[in-house]
Amino acid sequence: MDWTRLETDLVHQDNDRRIQALHRLAEELSHAEEVAEPEQLAQLVRQSLKSNNSHVSNAALACLPSLFPLLVPADFDATRSSTSTVNSLAHTLKSVFTLLLPLDKLGDAKTATRELARESVISAGKASLRLGVAAGTGASKDKEGPWQLVERGVQEYGFQSKNAKAREQALHFLAAIRCPAPESSLPLPPLRPFTPLLLPLLSDSDSTVRSLALHTCIAVFTHPSVSSAAKADLKKAMAKMEVSKRVQEQILTAVLGGSTPAMERSPSQGSLTSSGARSESSAPATSDTAPPTRMTRSRAAAVAQSSSSTRQPPSLLSSLPSAAFPPDTANVHTPSSAELLPVYIASERDLLAEFEAMKSGFEGKETEQNWTVRDRSIARIRGMLLGGVAKGELRGVFAQCVREAQDGIIKVSSSLRTTLAISALTLMSELAHGLPADLFEPLFDGFLSHCLSVAGQTKKIVAAASQNTVTTLLQHSTYHHRTLQLILLTLAERTASARQFAAQHVLTVIRCYARPSKSAIEHTGGLADLETALQKGLADANPQVRETSRTAFWEFERVWPDRAALIAASVDAAARKLLDKVRPAGDAPKLDSPVEARPSASTATGQAGGSKKPSVREMMIAARRQKAAAEKEEQAEAEQAQTPERPRRVLSTLTPELSPSRPALSPARSFPGPSILRTPTRPPVSPSFRSANNLAHGTPNRSSMRVAHSSAVSEPVDEALRDQAMQAEQAAQRLLEIAQDEEEAFLPSARDDAVARTPQLNRTLPTAAMQTPANPAVRRLARPQAVLQDSPDPRDGSGAGPSRGSWWVQRTEALAPPPPFAPDSPEKQAEIDGLLTSLRDLSIDATSLRKLSSLAKERPVRENEDEGVRRADPPTPSKTNGRDVGEGDKITTNEFWQGDRRFDKVYEGVKALLLRTDAPEAGMTRDAALLLLKDLVENQSPCFTGSEADLFDLLFKLREDPSRSSVAATEAIAHSFTSRLEPLYGLGALTPSLSAYLSSASTTSASDALARSFALGLRLMGGFFEQLPGAVLEDVLPQSADLLKRALNDAKSADLRRAAIMALVSAQVALDPSASGQDGKLAELIGGLEPDQQNLLAYYVAKRRP
C-alpha cells in the first residue's frame, strides 16, 4: 500500500482535512495486504493520535486495528523464517507499538474511545503472537519482545489500573486473546502470568468488573486448550488468594464439573431432616449417566424393585421395621450442620493431596479434638462424589484412595455421635451408588461386614441407618456367597432387631440376585443357605421376622418352586395358613403340601350336616398308621447311618407332623437330619459354635414336640373344644420353643448327641415340657455375662475383652464346611499331594485351604507323656469318613505329618501365602489361610517345637496389617499358641524373637505398624508373666526390661504404652498379689520407673485386686 499521497493531508493544519485523510487511510488499510515504511507512517499517525481534538484523535485511533496486522506478512511462518527476519519484524513491531499503542485510552470516559482502544490493543496482541511469544527477546533483562511489551502494558494500564473501565477492557482483552474462535490458528499466549492478575478482580469493588471477571475466568479456563495442571493451579491460587467460597464453587463447578455456574447444594454431612429423607440435590453425582460397567447393577436393582426408587440413593431411614426404629422421626433430635458443597478435583496430584491431608484425622481413636476433623473429611469425600469425581477420568485413583481410607471411614461410622456416624454411612451408600461396579467391589466386603455387625446396636437410629446402607450395598453389587454367609450369621443373633434386619436382607438378596445369579447361587451352596435362612426366619420367635420371611418365601418360590415346596412341608398347619395369606395376587395355585390344616368348628359343623366325633376304631387305625410310619422312618435312618457314601445335605426340619387327622408322608418325603451322623467321640462343641450349627442344620426338637403332642390326644372330644385347646397349646408350645432356643446353646453336648440319635417320630415330651415355661426374661437376667465378651468393639477392629479375636474364630468356624476328603486311599493321598503342590505354588484357593484346615482337625498331634513321642488319638469313624478302621488307618498322625515333610510344606506354604507382597490375597483366601494357621497351631502344636521364634516373627509381621479381620485373627492365633506353651519356655522364645523383629522391622515398617506388633508381643509377655511363680519371675524379668522401658517411653503410640503398663501389672500380680505396686520391687527389677509411670501402675494394680 502506498500511503505517501496522503502524507500532506495527514499533517495539514486544518483538522477537517486531517480527519478526511485519516478516514481514507483507515479504509485503504482495511483492504491492503501490506504497508510500506510502517515506522514513518506511525510517526504521522501519532501526531493525530495525540491531538487535543477528540475527533482527530478518534479518527487516528480507528486506523490502528487495521494497521497492526499489516506489520506481519500474511504468509509469515515463524517455524520456517530465519532468525534475522524474525528479529527485524520484531524490531518494527516494537517501534510501532511504542509510538501508537493506545493503552492510556483504555479507561477513557467515552465508550466509543474505549472500544476502539481495546480493539487496537487486541489487534496488536494478535500480531505479536503471530510473530511468536519469544520473538525479539534476548538474554538482557531489559530486552523484551513485542508480546512482552503488550503484556506489560495491559498489566499496568489495565488489570492494575485504578480506573474500573480500564480493568474492564483488560478483561475483554484476555478473553479475546485466550479464547479464539475454533477455526482460528492463532497461537495462544501463556496463561500463568494472567492468573494472579485475573483472580483479584473476582473481589473487585466494582460490580461490573466482578461479574465480567467471573465470566472471563470461566470462559478462559473452560477452553479446550487449558490443561488439567492449569486448572489445578487455578484451584490452588483461588484458595491461596482467599477468593470467596461462593465464587470458588461457581468457577469450579463450570471448570471441573462441566456444568453451568449456578448449582444447587445438598444437605451436609449426613444430617437427617425431620422427615428422615435425604435431599435430592445430590442427584447429579448419582444420576443415570453412569459408565457402561454399571449395566449389571441396574439389572439387579430392577429385579429388586420395580419402582423408580432404584434409580436414586435410598433414604437411610426408609422401610425400617417399626420395632427397630421410632415411629415418629420428627422426635429424634438431629443437630444442624453446614451445607455440603461440591468438591472439584483438577488432577491426580490434587486428589492424592486431598486424601493425604485426611490421614492424620482418621488415625487413633475418636477424641474431642479430632472428631470435627473426621466430620470434615467425610463431608469432603462426599463433596468429591457430588463434584463428579466418580464419573470422570480420575475415578480409578479416587477408588484407590477411598480403599486406603476405608478403615477410617468405618471408624467414623462407629462413632457415638449420631450425626457423624450417619454421615459416614451415607458416604458408603453414595460410594456404592456412584462408583462403577468393578471399582466398588474391593470396598464392598469391608463395608458390608461392618454394617451387619452393628445391626443390634442399642442406638436405633444408627442401627437402622446402617442396615439401609446394607440394602444399598446389596442393590449395587454382584452376588458373592460370602455375602449370604454374613447375613446368615446376623440371622443367628439373639437381638430381635438384628434378626429383623437380617430377614429383610434375605428378602433383598432374593430379589436382587435370584434371577440374574441363579446359576452362581446353585453352584456355590447359596441355595442351601437360603433354605436355611427361610426356615429359620419362618420359625423365629419374633413376629416381624416371620412376616418378612413369609414375603421372602414367596419371592424364593418364584425362582425355585420345588425347593419352596419342601420348605412349606416343614412348617406346621398354623404357620402354613399364615404363609398362604401373604401369597401375592396372581401367583400359581397353592403348593401341594402333605400337611393339611385341621378343619375349624364351623367347617366341621357344616360338613355332613353336623359335627361328628371320631370313633374308637378310627383312632385305632390312625395310631397303627402312625406306628408303621415311625418304623419305616427308623429303618431309613438306620440305613442312612450305615451307608459309607458321602451324606447329602438335607434339612432336619422337613420331617412332617403326624396326627390322626393328618395323613403321613410317604417314605420318599422323609429326610433324616444331619445330626444322626454325629461322631460319638467328637469333642464337646462350645456354645458359640453350637449356635452356628443350629443355624446351619435346624433344630429337631420342634417337630418332635408337635408329633408327641398330637399322639398324646387320645380321647374323643368335641371339635369346637378341641380347636380351642389346640390354639392354647400352640401358644404354650411357642413359648416353650423360645425358652428351649435360649437354653440350647448351654446344654451338654452328650445330651445333644443322645437326642440327635433318637428317632424323631418316637420322641415324647417330658412331663415338665407341658407345664407353663419360665419367663425367658428372668432367665436372661441370670445368664453369665460371658456371652457378651466376644462381641467386637465398635471403636476397635481387634475385638474387646481378654479373648481378643474370638469373634473372628466364631465367624470362620460357622461357615459351611468344605467338601470332605475321600476315604483313605491312593486317591485321597493324591488329592492331599495336589493341595500341597498348589499351596507351594501359591495358586491355592479358599476352598482348598479350608480342606487343609479340615485335614489338620482330622489328624491332630498330641503329646504322649508316658512314651515321650507324639502319636494320634485312636482312629474314629469321623476320621475315616464312616468306614470301619482298617490296617491302613493305624498309622499315627505324627508319622503322617512328618512323612514327606507334610507339616513343613503346609506351614511354609501358608507362611509364604500370608507374607506375599506382589499380589495380596483377596479377603476370603486370606481368611482361609489365617484359619489354616490357627488350626495348625491348635491341632499340630507339638510340630512347632523348635520353630516358636519363627512363628512369633510371622505373627508380628501379620499384626502390621491394620484391617479388622487380620487384627482379630492374629490376636486369636497368638493367644491360642501361647496358651499351649510352657510359660518359662515360651517367654524365653518370645523375648528374643520380639527384639529381633523390632531391630529388623524398624527400617522397613511404618511406626504405627511397628507399634501394633510391639503391643501384641507385650500382651503375650504379660500372659507369660502371670503364669510364672514369683521367684522365677524375679530371675527372668530383667531380661525383658529393655523392651518394657522402650514401650513405656514411646511418645507416639498410646496403645503401646498401655500394653507395657498392663504387662507390668501382670508381673506385679505374679510377684506379690497383695502389693500396691509402689513398693519399688518391680521398678528395681526393670531398672527404674518415672513417678507418673509408677502411679499409673499402682492404679491398674488396685483395679486388678479383687
Automatic annotation (TrEMBL):
Keyword Cell division included in the entry's annotation: yes
Domain of life of the source: Eukaryota
Family named by the database record: Belongs to the CLASP family.
Record domain TOG: where: 1-247, 344-588
The protein's name in its UniProt record: RHTO0S05e04566g1_1
Biased amino acid composition, Low complexity: 298-322, 656-670
GO biological processes: cell division; mitotic spindle assembly
GO molecular function ontology, one term from the record: microtubule binding
Ranges of biased composition (kind: Polar residues): 266-290, 688-704
Biased segments, Basic and acidic residues type: 584-595, 856-873, 881-893
SUPFAM superfamilies listed in its UniProt record: ARM repeat
This protein's GO CC annotations: cytoplasmic microtubule; microtubule organizing center; mitotic spindle midzone; spindle microtubule
Keywords assigned by UniProt, alphabetized: Cell cycle, Cell division, Microtubule, Mitosis
PANTHER family: CLASP, CLIP-ASSOCIATING PROTEIN
UniProt-annotated location(s): Cytoplasm, Cytoskeleton, Spindle
Spans annotated as Disordered: 256-322, 584-706, 785-805, 855-893
